[in-house]
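Each record in this resource describes a single protein on a pair of labelled lines. The shape at a given residue is found from the number at the same position. The record below illustrates this layout:

***
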Amino acid sequence: MIFPLEELVKFKDNIYEITTAASRRAYQLSMVKDPIIERNDGKVVSTAARQLFTHEVEYRIEQ
């Protein structure tokens, strides 16, 4: 799994938000040692970004 650059280029919303969400999701995945990381050759950030871009995982901004 490589970082989904084509999805990043197509992304029309706030890039800071998706970057922050991907970073936090990557942290979650690494802390719980999710088996999906091993299936993706240990690529935590690209796995987290893919989950966000494909809407497998949703994020929201808390006010």
Summary: The chain has four helices and no strands. Helices lie at 5-10, 15-31, 35-39, 44-53.
